[in-house]
Design brief:
With 637 residues, the protein is an alpha+beta fold. Strand 7 and strand 8 form a beta hairpin. The chain contains 17 helices and 19 strands. It starts with 14 loop residues before the first helix and ends in a 14-residue tail after the last strand. The protein is globular, with a radius of gyration of 24 Å. It binds flavin-adenine dinucleotide. Flavin-adenine dinucleotide binds next to helix 3, helix 6, strand 6, helix 7 and strand 15.
């Protein structure tokens, strides 16, 4: 299959306008004849469902949680980017585009990123109109702060609860349409399979998580907004229910998976503190606006931070990157923290932490100002660690946070399966090899509020879509296969818990496919994953039955998918013989230990085709062309 990204011709700044004009339209009277299935109710799914229903389509909305407003997006803390230039600092659509392409280490599509930057300003207007309570300056304008990889303040925020407030906006818009009868809500449902009829996405099979019933739902198109797969590492900042299953099962039905090894390790998380911990907590990147990152100059210095004099501290980000200082992008900040901890300069009980210190900011601005900006984050830190960050520097360490890889989509956000659209973190789209802070919310909402409503119309207006119902053989076959898989999981009756397998998989991934990767390590990891997967199907214990609420069964299905998907991640990482963004192969680094790209051989998107559980996937390459931002070695000095 030849990958076609369907990027419109013409000058960069005119592509989206031109494309919108050229896309075929569905007339207002005909929209109600189409049913669109939207899986996921985070910022991508919520905004898509609301916008499609507002246009007049019949929407069916699905999520795992008991309410759409509990999607993982609710956790987003720091903010959302837009190129409004309210600060008069010289920001522009072009600068946001440039920063994002550079931040992603030149592994994203220029046309997509430019469109994202263009739409960013509309998103803020839309959310303000919905009543999202963004922070404001004294004069009434919306306030902005800085995030990594940018030298301007373009991040809009609602204290440390930006995701929650944006999600409440999308949820309100959804509920307005639910009340109007154009959205039917299906909470507590898990999509188990994608149903294809004549090669097109025409429905899904779901499990009702309360009573265990399998259900079949038909539609004219399916929109996956099912989030990222960071939980393949077991420990991550993601919500416990975040998973790869919907995307991976679509992958098995023909949707190519792009750049699965591109994972983001966030530099500022509360360090791991115990073997049985199941969740990691993010301390928002916004804290790096005022907090200073440091370690003791000497390895093995175990004095409490207050006893280490200024001259014996290494503010290593400020020293190495004077232009960006503590606000270098996440991949750079994370790698530096690891490097210093590897040198024995890490702090805390485990030596796997660095300090994030607010002493200077408090002295300069006063405690009240810092409390106003970050109060809820400080409170969260204090509750978890029992330390007072106003008096003692926070201890932080990198943790898995976001996945830039995802299902491959073209400029219309359509996957390689006709009629299957993929939005938000679930697609590979706009972030290349490293996502800049505050740009996931921007992308999810751009996809849902502004891009899909046009592009899906273009598909529906031209596709041949004869009526199908849930008694079609394809639906019956997929539902029977889903039921058989549930029974197989329950029948193993082994001795190890699902979490035990998941934890071991997470260790393998963190060790060999995490912040630093080596070829021998990746090869070893592949064998370890295959062996663990083999043992899982012989020795996993899933208590209970499939006929009612059974969270072990839910997790077992997701971990079974992670055990297959993890192998794809290491295959992708092994294939990419360069370092770029979050993918750091130790064999490819500059003299200063920065990621060293190989543009001659790897300036492409790697899109993998599924061929079977034990069969090697087939690689398809989408070349990336840079006509507007010259390919250069990234520098934040
Ligand atoms: C702690 C934290 C803080 C963050 N802060 C920021 C920030 O400040 N700024 C920023 O830009 N980004 C931030 N991010 C990233 C950002 O929050 C996410 O990338 C984004 O919210 C993902 O949105 P989404 O709509 O794609 O997916 P999600 O919000 O993850 O939603 C996924 C949806 O899919 C549903 N689902 C999943 N699988 C299935 C299935 N099989 N069947 C049915 N439904 C399914 C879920 O129920 C849910 O409704 C943060 C992330 C974390 C973890």
């Amino acid at each position: 299959m030849q990958l076609n990204a369907n990027i419109p011709d013409g000058p960069l700044a005119q592509k989206w306008d031109r494309h919108r004009f050229e896309l075929k339209l569905v007339s207002p009277a005909n929209k109600r004849k189409y049913t669109i299935i939207v899986v996921g109710t985070g910022l991508a799914g919520g905004s898509a469902a609301a916008s499609l229903a507002e246009l007049g389509y019949a929407v069916k909305s699905f999520c795992i949680q008991d309410s759409p407003r509990r999607a993982h997006s609710i956790a987003a803390q720091g903010g959302i980017n837009a190129a409004k230039n309210y600060q008069n600092e010289g920001d522009s659509i072009w600068r946001l585009f440039y920063d994002t392409v550079k931040g992603g280490d030149f592994r994203s599509r220029e046309a997509n990123v430019y469109r994202l930057a263009q739409i960013s300003n509309d998103i803020i207007d839309q959310c303000v109109a919905q009543g999202v309570p963004f922070a404001r300056e004294y004069g009434g304008l919306l306030a902005n702060r800085s995030f990594g990889g940018a030298q301007v303040s373009r991040t809009f925020y609602a204290r440390g609860q930006t995701g929650q407030q944006l999600l409440l906006g999308a949820y309100s818009a959804m509920m307005r349409q639910a009340a109007a009868g154009r959205i039917t809500l299906f909470p507590r449902r898990e999509m188990l399979d994608l149903v294809l009829v004549d090669g097109k996405a025409r429905g899904i099979v779901t499990r009702n998580l309360i009573n265990g019933e399998l259900e079949r739902h038909a539609g004219d198109a399916v929109v996956l907004c099912t989030g990222g797969y960071g939980n393949v590492f077991f420990l991550s900042t993601n919500a416990m229910a975040s998973n790869v299953s919907a995307a991976f099962r679509a992958h098995k039905k023909g949707a190519f998976f792009a750049n699965p090894c591109f994972t983001q390790i966030h530099p500022t998380c509360i360090p791991v503190h115990g073997t049985y911990q199941s969740k990691l907590t993010l301390m928002s990147e916004s804290l790096r606006n005022d907090g200073r990152v440091w370690v003791p100059r000497e390895a093995g210095d175990s004095r409490p931070p207050q006893q280490i004099p200024e001259a014996e501290r290494d503010y290593y980000l400020e020293r190495k990157y004077p232009s960006f200082g503590n606000l270098v992008p996440r991949d750079v900040a994370s790698r530096n923290a690891k490097e210093l901890c590897d040198q024995g300069k890490g702090v805390g009980e485990t030596g796997r932490a660095v300090y994030l210190d607010f002493k200077d900011a408090i002295q300069r601005d006063g405690r009240a100002v810092i409390e106003k900006k970050y109060g809820n984050l400080f409170q969260m830190y204090a509750k978890i660690t029992a330390e007072n960050p106003y008096e003692t520097p926070m201890m932080i360490y990198p943790a898995v946070h976001y996945t830039m890889g995802g299902l491959w989509v073209d400029y219309n956000l359509m996957s390689t399966v006709p009629g299957l659209f993929v939005l938000g973190e679930a697609n590979f789209s706009d972030h290349g090899a490293n996502r800049l802070g505050a740009s996931a919310l921007m992308q999810g909402l751009a996809d849902g509020y502004y891009i899909l409503p046009y592009s899906i119309g273009g598909y529906l207006a031209t596709a041949d879509l004869p009526a199908v119902d849930i008694d079609h053989a394809a639906f019956k076959g997929d539902a029977a296969a889903a039921q058989a898989k549930i029974e197989k999981l329950l029948a193993v009756r082994g001795r190890r818990t699902v979490d035990d397998f998941h934890r071991e998989l997470g260790h393998i991934m963190w060790e060999h496919c995490g912040m630093a990767r080596t070829n021998p390590g990746l090869e070893k990891a592949r064998h370890m994953i295959q062996n663990l997967r083999g043992e899982f199907w012989e020795n996993v214990r899933v208590p209970g039955t499939g006929a009612d609420l059974n969270q072990s069964l839910e997790r077992a299905g997701r971990v079974a998918d992670f055990l297959e998907f993890a192998e794809l991640m290491v295959i992708d990482a092994r294939d990419r013989q360069e370092s770029c963004g979050g993918h750091f192969n130790e064999a490819y680094q500059t003299e200063e230990n920065e990621a060293l790209r190989d543009d001659a051989h790897y300036c492409h998107v790697s899109a993998w085709e599924y061929t079977g559980v034990e069969a090697p996937p087939v690689l398809h390459k989408e070349p990336l062309v840079f006509e507007n931002v010259p390919l250069t070695q990234r520098s934040y000095k």
